Amino acid sequence: MIRDQEVLNQLVDTIGRFVRDRLIPAEQTVAENDAIPEDIANEMKEMGLFGLSIPEEYGGLGLTMEEEALVAFEIGHTSPAFRSLFGTNNGIGAQGILIDGTEEQKRKYVPKLATGEVIGSFCLTEPDVGSDAASLKTRADKDGDHYVLNGTKRYITNGPEAGLYTVMARTDPDNKGAGGITAFIVEGDTPGLIRGKPDVKMGQKGAHVCDITFDNCRVPAENIIGGKEGQGFKTAMKVLDRGRLHISAVCVGVAERLIEDALKYAMERKQFGQPLADHQLIQAMLADSRAEAFAGRSMVLEAARSKDAGKNVSLDASCCKLFCAEMVGRVADRAVQIHGGAGYMAEYAVERFYRDVRLFRIYEGTTQIQQIVIARGMVRDAR
Ligand code: COS
């Protein structure tokens, strides 16, 4: 749903200019230094990027899902690391509190996420628990009006810089499944919360990931999201439904950028006496990429509109994540192929993007998990 087309056009134009003038020229430096310059982070805060999808009453821009998708397409035109910095505040770092939190929790924590004063993070994955999220082992044992958290969370995006963590932990040791899990809000300076060393990754340099260990970390009982034990797995799944749509939109944006780069190169580079772009085998790769990116864009917008209309989009969000993450992988592969030897060289952005996009097929639920969610939903609906 688009609330005011003119206001949205202005926002999308402003973000598009920011991407072109500030972010794209800084891509290589960010990749080399594995850090986003502070002045760029500050500009992102001033533009409201940390609170895009946070409701206005909590200090954000309150974008609908369709509006957020249109903005994410724009942001996808540059390195995914930039999005990652403010992405968790809009998505997995804030949505748990927004979807299932109490009014008091929202008022206390969300405004600081909306401005970017605090970075939010989402702790579900563990060393032994990835796709099978319901069997997580981190414990939260009640002790008076507190819970004591013990365990390790792994590959936590923005873990090193976050000041607020949504943590899924088991409060009922007798219930080994989803029903034994509770979601907590844990402040970054809580004693017993230990940030690990940032992991060295294949791509997306500038976006940071680390282990978060809880060692007798005491969290007030009032920080249970929604105030009720046993609801944490469902909260996490609802958060991921939204996150998967957002990531799908980013995949579409990245695919469009890669197509632009590949087309530009194909128009400039000549072989056999004519531009690559006039060779039919190159045209086939360009055409397939364009058609697939268009399909991704269309399905994301359709699913986003359904979400805005209040429909359950769990299955559709998984369809989008499955298709768009795989699609951008194919597009990146073709972009490298069109560049030939140059595509293998760090001098060209496609080499970096080729590594960056690999993560899309893995995080916020692997392609195989999306297949499971889709097929289970189909069987459930048919019954
Ligand atoms: N919204 C609301 N509730 C949901 C839900 C959703 N999208 N998905 C599942 N639930 C509920 C189910 O209805 C069920 O509730 P009841 O027990 O009341 O019936 C409960 O949660 C357990 O669901 P289910 O039985 O489907 O859980 P499974 O253990 O079979 O796991 C998958 C489901 C595999 C889909 C889940 O573990 C998953 O998404 N794994 C991937 C995790 C992931 O994306 N990790 C990435 C890292 S986080 S960035």
From TrEMBL:
Query: What positions does the domain Acyl-CoA oxidase/dehydrogenase middle occupy?
Result: 121-217
Which part of the chain is the Acyl-CoA dehydrogenase/oxidase C-terminal domain?
230-378
Annotated keywords = FAD, Flavoprotein, Oxidoreductase
> Short name of one Pfam family for this protein?
Acyl-CoA_dh_M
Oxidoreductase recorded as keyword: yes
> Which residues does the UniProt record annotate as the domain Acyl-CoA dehydrogenase/oxidase N-terminal?
9-117
Q: Which family does it belong to?
A: Belongs to the acyl-CoA dehydrogenase family.
Q: What is this protein called?
A: Acyl-CoA dehydrogenase
